[in-house]
Amino acid sequence: MSLRLATRLARRELRGGLRGFRVFLACLTLGVAAIAAVGSVRQAIMTGLAQEGAALLGGDAQIELTYRFADEAETAWMEQNADRVSEVVDFRSMAVTRSDAPQRGLTQVKAIDEAYPLIGAVRLNPEISLSDALDGNATLPGAVMDPVLIERLGLDIGDSFALGTQDFVLSAALISEPDAAGDGFTLGPRTLVRTADLKDSGLLQPGTLFSTKYRMDLPVGADLAELSEQAESVLQGSGLRWTDARNGAPGIAEFVSRLGVFLVLVGLSGLAVGGIGVSAAVRAYLARKTETIATLRTLGADRATIFQTYLIQIGVLSVVGIAAGVALGGLAPILLAPLIESRLPVPAVFSVYPQPLFEAALYGLLTALLFTLWPLARAEDVRAATLFRDALSSARRLPRAAYLLATGLALATLIATAAWFSGSPWLTLWTGGGFVGALVLLALSAHGIRYVAKRAATRARGRPALRWALAAISDPREGAASVVLSLGLGLSVLAAVGQIDGTLRNAISGNLPDVAPSYFFVDIQKDQMPGFSSRLENDPGVTRVESAPMLRGIISQINGQPAHRVAGDHWVLEGDRGVTYSDNAPQNARITAGEWWPEDYSGPPQISFAAEEAEEMGLKLGDELTVNILGRDITATITSLREVDFSNAGMGFIMSMNPSALAGAPHSFIATVYAEEEAEAAILQDLATQFPNITAIRVRDAIDRVSGLLAGLASATSYGAGVSLLTGFLVLIGAAAAGEPARRYEAAILKTIGADRRRILLSFGLRSALLGAAAGCVALLAGILGGWAVATFIFDTSFAVIWPSALGIVAAGLAVTLLAGLFFALRPLSVSPARVLRASD
Q1: For residue 470, what are the contacts with CB-CB under 8 A and spacing of at least 6?
Q2: Residue 101: band (very low, low, confident or very high) from pLDDT cuts 50, 70, 90
Q3: Per the domain annotation, does 527 fall within a domain?
């Protein structure tokens, strides 16, 4: 009976319109829309990757081998199971112009055969076929090159350049490759040539660093899962990596998924900020309904009827706000699809996807429930006689135990839902814990601010404007808590993002001039090492040179079990890793456990492993690792663990073996050169001229490329944090608007006792500025703590406060609160005191 009556009462109340609920709706709509939009874009990219998996991969399936070509058995298996096979060789090299003043540039070379591409087409400028472009002219084979590299080297179409000891003619600019996204991150722009034209270049010698990818065009209806298992079984021990069209760009898919999860979690922070506004709006609405509730209670309405009446109203309005957010978040990516696609390096299929919209709606519903239960429960617990005086301020602070339990269940459900949808429970729990911690810190700070303001007000004699401001802040009815919570949480997220971004940039480039080498040189042949070292030994601009033999290997087994089964998805197991050998322990490494093998040791293979990575993978002394190097399995026992410092961009190897374990394996050497900046150009010119096959990687250029990627990531996270801040700003406006009647009454009283407009406005301004500065300072503390936690426990890097960003947060909090407070203070100042006082009881 009470539910039917409550429904009738709620329907009649809703006829009064949305007055007082605009901020409520705006907060829910904005938060839900942000989550829906992020989820829709993520789903569009994942759908594009799935539909275009074969095109991104360059075939229906791919077998990748590390620094070797397929042998006869592997080639025969691929030709037996595929209609066509295309071989692609991928490596880094130096492109050198043929001129009086040669220009050199790092390039990622893709050497192809006649079958490339199996799927899609290469676009060139001028518009000629790839086959014609690579035919070259009568004297030189052809090549096509990324326009960025063409401009950097100062080349024109028809000019010649060299890769290693082989000359090529530039036939066209490379506009796009169908499989570019599947190739992943590269340090240099792309150059395409034919593999056959590199036979005299010296770049593909045994032991040099290259990978071969065999793309297969499979028969219609081929079972990719079955072929994958068959390849692993038939070609066991070959060290192959299988990829197929089911996930043609796994690295991109994983990155998009993780970034999407992070942005959804940031979007949830926006909903949490909006929840503060939702709670404040509900409380303010119920306060205005004092007489209505009192009348209903007087006429016999029980607690359940009162609660259900306003729960239904809030529920209907929540559904309206959530529906608007879902519609906005679902349609915005479709409307902005051309702009988004132009900035994406991968295909995306934009459409209305139910799953992310449902996820966003569920988040919105749980947030609305979580933040409205408390004020609704307090309202229904107030006696009728009290409601005629002050409905909510006189109610007890905590609702009944049943509502506390329901609130706890709503919070747990929200966190569990986020953990389930994100697929990253620990990240979600840590993020949720961070939000709850920030809210607790801000709530405690709000009480502290009120306490300090109350004590300070008594000492502000002689400064009436300041005293009025402090007295107002100390009044629990003035909404100081709402301002600090809403604005503070938005600023906290923004502060944390700023600290994380600055910390990552500092970790990558902050210490570069002091600790990082100038160049990495790779593919140095053993017989070239004496000449290479001789050039550098007598150069006064060179401060240090480190070199080591270099092989690459894939850890396939741990103690006879598949490596992934033992160590999970640890990054060391993702792809091949550097392997070196040495009779003696490196001077820059400290042995933390075990012992190095004796000099000239020739027994069973032994391996020294990086200590930190060993701990993460659960490895210990005595464990056996099977490492596939150039198609050969080598099983070695871990006999020592050592510290490896990767933070200084110097030389470091996860694995080092005794020399006899790798005897006969073809390999090259790698070297790092530390030199003064003015000496770098001459070093590069001399070494590249004397040893054309050597590839030089300038560390500063690599840093710039990584920094560019981080800048894009920082922009994406900043947009997410901006949603939280915008929501906080809306809540702040709502709080200021809701407090306008109180300001009007206060201004009337102050005018009556002789205060002028300037002093009253100054009081209102001081009140807003003090609250804004306080919210900014608390947010700064929360943001610094959040940035420190992410830097320390997720990125495992040192943390230092980025003060420009930090101080900007405090200034933003002060400015936003001051502007909102002053805007809603101007109208109360213009109202006649007599008119206000006559209208008051």
Answers
A1: 453, 454, 456, 457, 460, 770
A2: confident
A3: no
